[in-house]
Amino acid sequence: MIRFMQKSNPRLEMNEFALRIKAWGKELGFQSVGIADINLGAAEENLLQWLAAGHHGAMDYMAKHGVKRARPAELVPGTLRVISVRMNYFPDSSGEAEAVLLDLSRAYISRYALGRDYHKVLRNRLEKLAKRIREVGECQCRVFTDSAPVLEVELAQKANLGWRGKHTLLLSREQGSWFFLGEIFIDLPLAVDATQQGHCGTCVACMDVCPTRAITAPYIVDARRCISYLTIEHKGSIPIELRPLIGNRIYGCDDCQLFCPWNRFAGKSIEPDFFVRNKLDDVSLIELFAWSEEEFHMRMAGSAIHRIGYEQWLRNIAVALGNAPATPESKKALSTRSQHASHVVREHVEWALQLVAKHETD
Ligand code: B12
Ligand code: SF4
Ligand code: SF4
After folding, report:
1. Do 292 and 166 belong together in one domain?
2. Do 35 and 180 lie in a common domain?
3. For residue 262, which ligand has an atom nearest its CA?
4. Is residue 321 in contact with ligand 2, taking CB distance under 6 Å?
5. Are 32 and 152 in a shared domain?
6. pLDDT per residue as tens, the chain (362 positions)
């Protein structure tokens, strides 16, 4: 077995090793693998501005690590390169997303959360790749996916996995944007990839379709307005003025990706872990609202949705039921929770019942 140790012809060895790593990554099910150096240039300043503007809302973890997020070698001393990978998640089996969004009696759940939690899937696969790398190269490496203070999109863009769209996510010409990102920090000077130019041009579709106008300028998302933040990250009461704009989105939001022209070419996922569970791509709000706490824990075990907890789950569905067409069934469903132990649930149910009553008299 060849061992890569930066010896006789370091540059050649690091080129060859980089190619090997990319081939292994593809064998392990990643659609792309790229390599970047750790100089994140203007990203640090942009991150600081974003934080200073308060766009992170209550996501304290975004501010906690300061500039470490933009300095990989401060997070893992000795890091010279970051290997970025992407894995498609849009389940091949899922139904029509747009049709669900238009039918307000049904629940819309982000395509990334229809199956099992991606963190484990990606981490396991990255660990396998890191193991192969360690077996062949004399090096230290550590894997991350959405789990540490890392500017993942910025690194992936540098590694030529795609470009950053105006919605701030990474997208590629061949695969669109329905993919997760993950990284391996490594202390070898592997050959790096060239950064890709953007292909958004004059398009602003993502900004125009965003229901809450959370993309306040190209490449800037004010998380406090983003439905993904409001339904997943935000605890407590959802600002009243934003509730009607949430529609039937009860966990995350995909609109800025659904209407991006490049997603016409998007790759679908063939990972069984990302296949739809519990009919979450085609289910009524009333059915989900009727789940008991035990049912929620049982059905959502292993899903990213489990992490928001039952209270937040009911809160989100109550908002969606308030936005749905008023029917005797929706009124009845909401009334079953009007005495719920959680004041957050009660408050959102009350708001929804007021809307139902208003629609009835209209
Ligand atoms: C915090 C976070 C969120 C927050 C904030 C989102 C955001 N845009 O910042 C919330 C909860 C809203 C969120 C939502 C979603 N997220 Co998220 N999120 C993250 C996380 C943990 C950090 C992102 C971050 O660093 N934000 C901080 C700001 C400063 O970064 P930024 O917006 O990217 O800003 C950069 C540029 O825009 C630029 N910039 C900033 N200001 C300016 C100004 C000018 C003039 C210019 C030119 C540039 C510029 O510089 C900044 C620094 O690089 C990453 C994982 C990770 N560790 O990176 C996942 C991640 C970005 N999320 C992801 C996903 C899938 C989503 C959702 C699609 C989930 C869903 N369906 O609901 C939505 C999409 C919403 C959206 N349009 O961004 C994926 C994206 C994969 C991809 N294809 O890119 C990631 C990478 C997780 C992963 N491992 O796969 N997310
Ligand atoms: S995820 Fe939804 S709310 Fe957030 S920026 Fe995209 S379209 Fe807007
Ligand atoms: S919708 Fe248009 S502007 Fe937004 S990311 Fe896609 S191509 Fe870029």
Report:
1. no
2. yes
3. 3
4. no
5. yes
6. 456 655 556 766 889 999 999 999 999 999 999 999 999 988 999 999 999 999 999 999 999 988 899 999 999 999 999 999 999 999 876 668 999 999 999 999 999 999 999 999 999 999 999 999 999 888 999 999 887 899 999 999 999 999 999 999 999 999 999 999 999 999 999 999 999 889 999 999 999 999 999 999 999 999 999 999 999 999 999 999 999 999 999 999 999 999 999 998 898 898 999 999 999 999 999 999 999 999 999 999 999 999 999 999 999 999 999 999 999 999 999 999 999 999 999 999 999 999 999 888 77
Question: How far apart are the CA of 57 and the centre of ligand 1, in A?
Answer: 13
Using a 6 Å cutoff on CB, does residue 215 contact ligand 2?
A: yes
- Would the CB of 97 count as within 6 Å of ligand 2? no
312 lines ligand 2 (CB under 6 A): no
Residue 100 within any structural domain of the chain: no
Of 144, 170, 186, which marks where a domain is finished? 186
Q: Considering the candidates 103, 146, 187, 282, report the single residue annotated as catalytic.
A: 146
Q: Choose one of 153, 179, 230 to mutate for the ligand 1 pocket test, by most ligand atoms within 8 angstroms of C-beta.
A: 153
146 as an active site residue: the answer is yes
Residue-wise over 319-347: b if at least 16 C-beta within 10 A, else e? bbbbbbebeeebbebbeebeebebebbbb
**Are residue 16 and residue 156 in the same domain, yes or no?**
yes
Cα(281)–Cα(294) distance, integer angstroms: 21
What's the confidence (pLDDT) of residue 2? 54
Domain count along the chain: 2
5, two tokens: 């140790």
What is the SS3 string spanning 137-202? ECCCEEEECCCCCCCHHHHHHHCCCCEECCCCCEEECCCECCEEEEEEEECCCCCCCCCCCCCCCC
